[in-house]
Amino acid sequence: MAAPAEAAPAPVVQGLGGDPREPAIADTIDLRKIGYSRGAEDAPVTVYEFSDFGCPFCGMFARGTYPGLHEEFVATGKVRWTYVPFVMGMFPNGAESARAAECAAEQGKFWEMHDLLYAKQNEWKASRSPERLYNGYARELGLDTGRFASCYREDRGGARTALNNRAADALRVRATPSFFINGRLVEGALPAEQFRQVLTSLAGAR
Q1: In which domain, by residue range, is 38 found?
Q2: 12 or 75, greater pLDDT
């Protein structure tokens, strides 16, 4: 977990736009317009995952827990999962990796870069020149490397990351990863079985 969580119980956040599954934040930020989503739009359960690519617990969740949840819940239409990449500011090259992910998203390959960044997390976190590594990842994913490089240099995804950071601040995200599951805040990477029980209970409640 990236930062110590407050001892207070996890709050239930009211619905956005009348939908009780959507966390509500300041009127200027609509969570339905940020992050990258997978799963049916009308799924009975929505999950917003706020993660920093540099967070080791986020990496453990992405590599070890999420794939099974995706297969069981997201791919079957039970859960709409939105990953919101934001920057805690405490992990080596965390901001740079978010920039790389946004530049991959510019070419429709956010999730592929998401997986690769977590798979190679130890490599780029230890690097003093991560841009070189990210350019290599772009090549590995079959991206237009010239376009990727220019996007990275110009930080063309910076506005999206800034909006994600504002959303995290407004929702008082203090730990990574943090999840809003049908509006309820869950902090930290829950064990796979515990996460599965939560999703199963909510998916069956509709």
Answers
A1: 32-186+193-203
A2: 75
